[in-house]
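4.2 Preliminary Data

To establish feasibility before requesting continued support, the project team ran the inverse folding procedure on a target of 211 residues. The structure was first converted into the token representation described in Section 3, and no sequence information of any kind was made available to the design step. The complete token record follows.
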């Protein structure tokens, strides 16, 4: 009887281990490919004062507007990042001028790198927590609340207050990710929402490797 119990326990343990490793592999693959498919914008305000938070949004809008003028539609993420790198000084100047024009004397720091992001929702599209390539803009002391969006594909250019990402933006996004990933981040059905929670859980536990 004891042998049967030990054998049953071993089978259960191996089954749970298989489920765990399979889920971890799934989360790692999904997270890595999603991170490879998008380029995000991260703006950090000087402080949490109302004036500094409003300034953060004004800087955001000006930078997004500038990026729209220098990036053509239909380009790849790599091309988008390269254009941003080639124009990094100009982006900084746009942000700095915006700060000065609005009556503040804060310095602005602009960089492109791979940064950690929490789970974030844009309208009806959600991205799991993880490390993503991003354009980071730090205003002044950069001690205020952050603002995030996805610059490529162009989800920054939507009205997130409406709660819906336009079909055009979704089509752009769909062309850059797999069907599974698209269903995952758009929450197409309950099983996919459960998978999103799996990815999010492993990200929060720090078990999914970053880039």
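Position-by-position output of the design step:
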């Amino acid at each position: 009887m004891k042998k049967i119990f030990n054998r049953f326990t071993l089978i259960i343990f191996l089954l749970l281990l298989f489920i765990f490793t399979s889920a971890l592999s799934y989360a790692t693959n999904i997270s890595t490919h999603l991170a490879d498919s998008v380029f995000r914008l991260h703006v950090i305000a000087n402080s949490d004062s109302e004036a500094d938070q409003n300034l953060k949004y004004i800087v955001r809008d000006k930078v997004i507007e500038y990026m729209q003028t220098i990036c053509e539609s239909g380009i790849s993420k790599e091309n988008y990042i390269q254009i941003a790198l080639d124009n990094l000084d100009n982006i900084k100047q746009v942000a700095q001028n915006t700060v000065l024009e609005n009556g503040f004397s804060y310095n602005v720091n602009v960089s492109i790198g791979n940064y950690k992001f929490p789970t974030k929702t844009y309208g009806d599209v959600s991205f799991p927590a993880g490390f993503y390539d991003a354009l980071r803009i730090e205003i002044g002391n950069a001690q205020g609340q952050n603002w995030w969006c996805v610059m490529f594909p162009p989800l920054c250019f939507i009205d997130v207050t409406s709660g819906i990402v336009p079909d055009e933006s979704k089509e752009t996004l769909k062309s850059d990710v797999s069907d599974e990933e698209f269903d995952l981040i758009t929450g197409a059905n309950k099983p996919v929402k459960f998978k999103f929670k799996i990815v999010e859980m492993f990200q929060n536990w720090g078990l999914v490797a970053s880039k």
